[in-house]
């Protein structure tokens, strides 16, 4: 059960809804587990106000020149521009911009990805840059449009570009970018974990928007102190002109240049989030599955459910714990496995406990049945022994009568011993622990023995018992148990038949199937009662109204005995007209027949 739930939980972790849930969990963790950093960057924004004051988009090249000129005067650590300078505009403006770029010692220009390769800056501008252009691609998650990662590397045929934020870090520190086998990138002494096989992704540790200063171009001179010693990202933030917008895990929308500044902060502080390994996720899920199974295997009741609640809480907290150690563990897998395995283990325990309880109740019922049966069966021989012994003690009897009573006591004592042995055998039979004897005996022998034992009971009620045909056939089984079964049918027929009626015993042997029937003229049963007569302790209304003592277990034991011998009992009955009980069992080869007749008494 637990293994199946584990497999379902693990498989569900690869589905589309699970990935969305993992994204939501990541966003929630990002907002709650925020880094405590001092910012190293500033965004200089070409916003709506800048366009209004500077003549709009047609003057973008002039606006950029003025902004860079004032930024240079503020002495930044480095400058990265998120404006693609791929096309010439106005010769005077281009010359002006070229002169400004020459005055900035640590400059990074940007490039974009076009259909035929990279859209690089004009060579006249790139000549003054401190490094190759950085690409400005910001990738949205296709499931929900949120930008959680950026690719640090982009490769087109014959050319590679690092991300703008990574180039800005290298220029700021004056260190080259190198590859660190097998899957890292190095900038000086800092190693950035970024597997090349997946595009060298970097999780952006977003800071709240107000933590990275955003300075409109017209306010640069007023806020020059905020720029000094910082890495400046210059770009368009105006909604009417910006080509890229970024949706953050905070559910905020920022401009692309602000997204690059956020990525730069992550790189400069060196606290990188990495995806957990697949085997780590698998082992975590296995741990929750095993824990759920052990809880409900070793404990039950409220204690099990309290511990399982703690386990489910741990499944929610584990992704948080990993996140605090800069590892992104998918939240859905552990939580789904913990819940499913807990539900599966609890369900299994519930039904297992119920099965155990049912078995216990069955054993208790069987024990009570055995006690009632023993008391019921032992009453007759004990009464005979007690009565005979009292007569012998009270009266001075002739030798012949004393001998008769002595023989009766001896006979009934042996009978009592057989009942006790049969009681033990029936107990083991009901528990399925008894191996039946494999004796071969004639059916006629059982009929003859039982007829002799039941004759005194029939005599008191003047009931005649007749064997209507020769009893043919032999079969293999436990003779004592089979004798008990047939004797019970005979005594029931006598008990529940009116005085001066007739009981008929007859048999038929056909194609290896032996049928031995007892038909009476007793109280009978209706169809509803016939369905229940083999249930333990069941007695019909007519049986209870007859005044005859009974426990309602005799027929249940008879059915057990016949069933264990591979047979069955067929019953036909009509209220007020009597019943016919037929033992149907496999027979062996025929044996000499006998015929018995008990005359009317």
Could you explain how this protein is built, in words?
With 601 residues, the chain is α/β, with parallel strands linked by helices. The protein folds into three domains: 1-33 and 276-396; 36-270, no CATH class; 435-601, Histidine kinase-like ATPase, C-terminal domain (Heat Shock Protein 90), CATH 3.30.565.10. The model is unreliable at 590-601 (pLDDT under 50).
Number of helices: 18
> What are the segments in which pLDDT stays under 50 over at least 5 consecutive residues?
590-601
Query: Average pLDDT across residues?
Result: 86
> What fraction, in percent, of the residue positions are helical?
40-55%
Strands ordered across the widest β-sheet: 3-2-15-1-14
The count of strands amounts to 26
Domain module tally? 3
Task: Describe this protein with a few key phrases.
Heat Shock Protein 90; five-stranded parallel beta sheet; 18 helices; disordered C terminus; five-stranded mixed beta sheet; 3 domains; 48% helix; rod-shaped; alpha/beta; 601 residues; single chain
Produce a short descriptive summary.
By secondary structure, the protein is of the alpha/beta class. It has 18 helices and 26 strands.
